[in-house]
Amino acid sequence: MDLTNDLARLALQEEQLQFDVFTNDTAWQLGMRLKDAVEARGKAVAIDIQFTGQPLFFFAMPGTTPDNVDWIRRKRNVVLHYHRSSYAIGLELKKNQTTLLDKAGLAVRDYAPHGGCFPIWIRGSGFVGTITISGLPQREDHNVIVEVLATWLNCPLSELALSDTN
Questions:
Q1: d(Cα 40, Cα 52) in Å, to the nearest integer?
Q2: What are the boundaries of each domain within the chain?
């Protein structure tokens, strides 16, 4: 994994994967697409989509535990704080050899800078919510969200996808 290239690709994802409109129905359909994408991999995750602080979609697949729900909360807190993907924040911390506690006083019990939470942006309006999954290795959690969003938003995945390697 090349941190510099990954961070550039993550910034591009956050710039390109934005909505013109986002509704409760959008959240439901995206949540179901995430569920289908993970099931197609033969895996299990918990999925959470929130819009302006309101939960619009939640599903815990068989095989997940309450620990996955806590990971969702902690990853979501990172995105709510920085308005960036939790994976991007984690890689920036790694690149700078620091932690959220050292950088911003944010405790690990409430903040997890690990892949799996992506910001919801509406063009012309700004940051409005989060899409989070937990249950796969962090890079895969992140990649599943990006794949589903790229398809939904008609963005070329080949230009946005991270490599599959850790």
A1: 30
A2: 3-156
* pTM score over 0.70: yes
CA distances, 34 to each of 30, 95, 143 (Å) = 6, 29, 11
**pLDDT tens digit sequence for 22-52:** 999 999 999 999 999 999 999 999 999 999 9
Unique residue bearing structure tokens 């999954």: 133
pLDDT beyond 90 at 163: no
DSSP H helical segments within 41-111, as ranges?
66-82, 86-95, 100-104
Considering the domain 3-156 in this protein, what is its CATH number? Answer: 3.30.450.150
What is the helix (H) or strand (E) element at residue 127, kind and residue range?
A: strand 126-134
C-alpha–C-alpha distance, residues 58 and 72, integer Å: 11
By the 10 Å C-beta count (0-12 exposed, 13-18 middle, 19+ buried), 71 is classed as: buried
Largest CA distance in the chain: 41
